Amino acid sequence: GSTLGDAAAESGRYFGTAIAGYKLSDSVYETIANREFSMITAENEMKIDATEPQQGQFSFSAGDQIADWAAQNGKQVRGHTLAWHSQQPSWMQNMEGSALRQAMLDHVTQVATHYRGQIYAWDVVNEAFADGGTGARRDSNLQRTGDDWIEAAFRAARAADPGAKLCYNDYNIDNWSWAKTQAAYDMVADFKARGVPIDCVGLQSHFNSGSPYPANYRTTLESFAALGVDVQITELDIEGSGQQQADTYRQVVEDCLAVSRCNGITVWGVRDSDSWRSSGTPLLFDGNGNKKEAYYATLDAL
Ligand code: XIL
Description:
17% strand, 302 residues, alpha/beta
C-alpha cells in the first residue's frame, strides 16, 4: 500500500489518527487525514464535557461533525470516551455517590445510543488505574462510587450499542513488568471470567523518556490478547526525532503485526504541530505536513 491505511489493510488492520474537528477546514491537515488514515478518533469532541455540558442536555454537533466526515470519507470511528475522571463537565465534577453513579450510567447510555451503529469500538472507560507500584485503582469521584463502576459502565454501553466493540483504554499499561499493567490485565481476566462484556483493550502508548517504549511490549500485547480480547494501539506518539524515533515506530508496528489480535494502530494527531504535547515532535508528519523518517519506517513496517 502507498498510504498507512492501505498498508495496514493488507493484513486486515486499520491505521487511524485523532482528529480535531476545527482543523478539518485546514486543507493541508484534511488532505493528509483523508489520504492516510482508515480509522478516526475524536480528539476531544466525544468526551463527557463536550457531549453533556449540562446534566441531561446533550450536545453532539462537534462529535457529529467528525463522525459525518468519517462516514463521508469511508472511515471507521473509535468512540472516545464514555467514562473518565478527566474532562468531566463541572456539574459532574461536583457529584458523588449514587447520584454520580446514575449520572455516569445515563451518560453512557445516551451517548452510546446517539452514536449507535456509527462506532467501531468505544473506549468505554479510560485511565481507571493509578500510576506507580501499587496496582490500585486511580482515586476519582467515579472510583469512590464503588469498584464495580467500570463493569456497570460496560454493561450500560453493551445495552445501548450491541454492535460496538467495548474497550478498556489506559496509558502506562505497555510495560509488562509494571504493576499498572498487571492490574489492568487482572481486571480484564476477571471480566472475561464473569461474563462482563468487554471486547478489547486499548494501549494509549504515549512513549517518552518517563514512559519509554518497553522491550516487552509484544509480550504485553500477546498477554492481553490471550485473554480473548482484541488489542489496539490507540493514542500512539513517540518522543524524539530522526532515525531513533523512526526505529521505535517500526518496532511498535512490528510488535502489533506479530500479534494476530492486535488489529489496529492509531496515532494521536496528524502533524507534529497538532500534537497535544506542547513541545516535541512525536508524530509522523512535520508541521508543514511533510512525511518524516518515522512515517516511512511505519509504512515500511506495515
Ligand atoms: C488530550 C487531547 O489531545 C488534548 O487536546 C486535551 O486538551 C486533553 O486530552 N489520554 C487520552 C486522551 O485518553 O483523551 C488525551 O487527549 C491524551 C491522554
